[in-house]
């Protein structure tokens, strides 16, 4: 046996431990449940199908709409993104989904951005990229280059995850995953504030206040005290090469469910109860729709919705000894208002709207403004003749704010409007409301996807977590422990074929 393993080890084929042989003719799981049909849950169903094969039944529970925080609202028969909207060109899982699902890219329509401090624009994008670079250089000196190099280095390390996952490696915690990508430096970045990290890097306070802080406000509705890791993800998303899904990002979710041949059960999971212990425990899910309660037993469960108390998923965990710990921290409120109307350009210092050149307005922190950002937005289906509305025309705008806009606030931002549609999101973690990262393994066969959001919340992060959990569940079921939390993966994937 020992010699046998030795041979395996040095030919770099997956090493098997003794228990694997006992398990080899063991049965595969017969039923798997995923709770939540956002991008996290639907991607998990897809990856579970890939790894566990065609026989296992996969049920996906959704109490609301498929897509979760990917959603659209309709204005004049056109749909607009109200939740997660932007995808980075290096988000490889999202790219893969688009291709496998036969969906199309929706490129962003050009438009200029400016930063508003409550009184005036302090930074304005021009037509000429070189001029912008020159201005940035003039205003902030070396900060801009330092920042770019910092973000690029982090992205490069983060991209290792795709290689590790392609080789089948899984991680039993968010810490292990981050550590394998960027060592203790990555873990530290989830604990230190962005501002501290950037100041240490030599980025100027002015640059932080005038550029970094507005980006954090538009992406996460929070200030520069958020952890450096999510800050870096957010800054990567502020670079060029962004896209979205034609027809709406939520299409990825519904199509993934179909591709996975998963059963969508439109029902709210109210309890998950441990039914039998032993090597392969089982769990009973009780769910309720239209006052009808139904229960069913599963071998593996993936919880793909935030479990923080203020999110109020309505799931109670029963029969676990000791009780499952409550998830500390809370989710951050961000309100997305989709407004059809005339922007009040006077408010921004442009009495003549014809001269107003910007399509996106970011804001600084100092101003204590009632909104985080305001932008003219494009529908999810763009026809070939599409052009952005000019500021003197009625257009569709998205305003992010920490609270629902009051009538007088709407009347400050808009000269007049036809409609306002409000989506009040618990959008992403309220960073800093807890220290440490939530667990991935809740019990032998029960997993939690959304802990990854405390490192950074984005569609791609949920997709990375989905692939990880599918691999983790598969290896744990088959007792292939050498595929979990392996050290020195950089070296291993280089030498494996
Ligand atoms: C306003 C806003 C802007 C954003 N912008 C971006 C962006 O530009 N780019 C980006 O990458 N990300 C962005 N994000 C973040 C991104 O949308 C999320 O990280 C991602 O969509 C989370 O997906 P998820 O599947 O993990 O969770 P969710 O989408 O929240 O899915 C969880 C699902 O579980 C369901 N559920 C909950 N409890 C139960 C229950 N008891 N029974 C059954 N079902 C249940 C919920 O109804 C929900 O559908 C943004 C988010 C918001 C809100
Ligand atoms: C991360 O923090 C720990 C503890 O403070 C420290 O020992 C380690 O050197 C840090 N890692 C990096 C890469 O800075
Ligand atoms: C950032 O916001 C938090 C509350 O969310 C607050 O406690 C903190 O003081 C703010 N930091 C700065 C630098 O404004
Ligand atoms: C929008 O785009 C999606 C995806 O390409 C397509 O399925 C849908 O029919 C389009 N809708 C309209 C109204 O054109
Ligand atoms: C528009 O902004 C100006 C300048 O701040 C303000 O006086 C006015 O009341 C705002 N609203 C309308 C409807 O013009």
UniProtKB/TrEMBL annotation:
- What GO molecular functions are on record for this protein? prenylcysteine oxidase activity
What is the required cofactor set for this protein? FAD
Biological process according to GO: prenylated protein catabolic process; prenylcysteine catabolic process
Signal sequence region: 1-17
Q: Does the keyword Flavoprotein apply?
A: yes
Locate the Prenylcysteine lyase domain: which residues?
A: 123-486
Q: Which UniProt keywords apply?
A: FAD, Flavoprotein, Glycoprotein, Oxidoreductase, Signal
Q: Which InterPro entries does UniProt cross-reference here? A: FAD/NAD-bd_sf, Prenylcys_lyase, Prenylcysteine_Oxase1
The family assignment reads: Belongs to the prenylcysteine oxidase family.
This protein is called Prenylcysteine oxidase-like
Q: Which organism is it from?
A: Triplophysa rosa (Cave loach)
